[in-house]
Each structure stands twice: as C-alpha cells, then as structure tokens.
Amino acid sequence: MSTTETGTAPTGTRDGAGAPRRGLAARIVGRIGGGLAQFLLIVVALVWLVPTFGLLVASLRSTSDNGASGWWKVFSKPSQLTFSAYSDLLGKGDFVDSFWNTVLITVPATLLVVVIASLAAYAFAWMEFPGRDWLFLVVVGLLVVPVQVALLPVAKLYGAVRIGSFHLFGSITGVVLFHVAFGLPFAIFLLRNFFAGIPRDLLEAARMDGGSEWTIFRRVIFPLGGPAIASLAIFQFLWVWNDLLVALVFADTGSQPMTKWLQSQMRQFTGNIDILAPGAFLSLIVPLAVFFAFQRYFVQGVLAGSVK
After folding, report:
1. How many other CB atoms sit within 10 Å of the CB of residue 107?
2. Comparing C-alpha atoms, which of 292, 291, 269 is closest to residue 280?
3. Which CATH class name applies to 92-303?
4. Residues of the chain with pLDDT > 90: what percent?
5. Cβ–Cβ < 8 Å for 106, 241
6. Out of 11-25, 68-82, 124-138, 253-267, which region has the weakest mean confidence (pLDDT)?
7. What is this structure's pTM?
8. What is the three-class DSSP state of 116?
9. What is the overall mean pLDDT for the chain?
C-alpha cells in the first residue's frame, strides 16, 4: 500500500501558486523603483546643481547687483547679465599665470602617475621577482599615510635640494613630485587588482608567440585595462587640479596654481565677488569637461568586475 505525503508551505512565505509572497518593504521598493524613483533622482540632481548655477549667475552680474540682491533676481532682470567680470579677470596677468601653472602641475602629475602605476601594477600582477608580495604590502601600507604627515619632512628635503640657481622648494617641479609620490600607492593598488583579473590565457598565448613583457603590456594589458586607467586618470586629474593644501606649502607666488591664487583673494568675499565668482567657475569648467569627455571609460572602469 502506497501513501502520498502532502506538505504545506510555511504560512506567509508562499501563495497558492507556489510563488513566494512579497513583504511590505519589497512591495514599496517595487512601486518606487519605476518612474517615481527617476523623478526623485532628477529632483536631487537639480537641487545639487543649484549652487553651481548660482555661481555662474553671480559671475555674470556686477558687484553692485550681487551686493544689492540675490542671484535669483536675474530671472526678473536678465539685463543684469554681463561678461565684464570675465574680461577683467582674464586681463589680470597673475590669474592667467596661475591658470597655466595649474595646467603645468596637473598634466605632468597625472601622466606620470598613470604611466608609472601602470608599469608597476603589471609587474605586481604578472611578473615574478624576489620580494614582490612584501613590496606590494608596503605599497598598500602607504595608502594609510596622510598627506599632512609628510608636509614638513618633504619641505625640509626640498629646501636642501639646490641645483645652481634652481630651488626645488617653491617650484612647479616640487609640487608635481609631491603629487606623484602620494598618488602612486592608490594608483598601483587600483590597477594591480584590475590587471590581475585579466585571463592568464591571453598572456600565455602572447608569450608563446614570442612577445616580450613590454609587448604584452603594450598590446594586451594596456588596451584591456583602458577603463581602469581612464578612471585613474580622472581621479588623479581632479585631485591635483583642485588641490590647495600642497600648493599652500610648496608653491610660491611664481608657481602658485589657481586654487592658491583664489585663496589669496578671499580677504572680504563681498568685496571680491567679481573676482572669486568668475575665477571659481573657470576653475570648475576644466575638470568638468575632462570628466564628461572620459565618463564612458569612467563608468566602464567603475563597473569592471561587477559582471562575470
């Protein structure tokens, strides 16, 4: 005699068709996951952009108008908009010099970090040499060293370096070297983890075809690691471009970037808004343009490894 055993689903977990019941939280998430969530994200993005838009409008108004009313009054009086503040600012030689100093600091500091970190990350990921793991642990340990700890020791070291009439302290070269030194640990750590995820079969096939390590790096690692390298370049560019602390310590008047120049103008904000507003907006435009130019690679680098 055969018997048929019947079981009952736990109460509150499955419905009559066998599908699991959704809890209250799951139903709420499901309902707001559509158009309502997108609407809320748009509202948050617009609110986030209000200060930037206000800075732009303030930079296009005269000092008297900014002192008399808020920037939102421009909607009722669009005739207040003028580019005179920008023309006056660009006519200042010290501001133009600070802009080019920023470029001369940021571009080499970004390129050097990307190139050196890419080569070092490839060595840590795919090359065997004595002490590799211990050396990589040292690099990881350097990630926790704050910049503030090294300011005074490096300043003393820079002060001792003199080649003829050239002084490392107070020069663009000194600022670039400091940014490179403190940008490399994170860069190496980031790229090494990305390069280690590249299939070993690709590298072995390239070695069997007679490819040298340099050829493998240039034709296999570098193209496949493009998203991570682009993400690193964006991070490094933004960090160096917006830096103020390192510039305050190591840059003098002749090598100061825009951040230090703008900081020197902040004696009385209401009296210098015609300088600070357009200067701050010009310093914002360049990194914003760089981000949007490489955002496709940035997104790929952030999502790399999330999907197998």
Report:
1. 14
2. 269
3. mainly alpha
4. 23
5. yes
6. 11-25
7. 0.78
8. helix
9. 81
Residues 306 and 63: their CA atoms lie apart, in Å, by 50
Signed CA dihedral, 281, 297, 185, 189: sign only: positive
Angle, CA 132 vertex, CA 127 and CA 135 arms, to 5°: 140
Amino acid at 187: A
Measured CA to CA, the distance from residue 170 to residue 99 in angstroms comes to 17
The token duo for 135 is: 């050396």
Residue 308 in this model has a pLDDT that exceeds 50? no
**Over 60: is that where the pLDDT of 80 sits?**
yes
Contacts 24+ apart (CB under 8 A), 145-149: 145/185, 147/182, 147/245, 147/246, 148/245
Domain ranges of the chain: 24-82, 92-303
- Residue 105 to residue 176: CA distance in whole angstroms: 6
Structure-token pair, residue 280: 């701050």
In this structure, what token pair is assigned to residue 250?
Answer: 């190591």
Give the C-alpha separation, 134 to 122, whole Å. 16
First to last CA, the chain: 51
In contact, 161 and 250? CB cutoff 8 Å: no
Position 99 scores a pLDDT of 93
Token look-up 């357009």 returns 278
DSSP line for 47-62: HHHHHHHHHHHHHTS-
Q: CA–CA separation, 75 vs 227, rounded Å?
A: 42
Residue 203 amino acid letter: L
CA distance 116 to 108: 12
Q: What is the pLDDT of residues 192-230, one digit of tens each?
A: 988 888 888 888 888 888 878 888 888 888 888 888 888
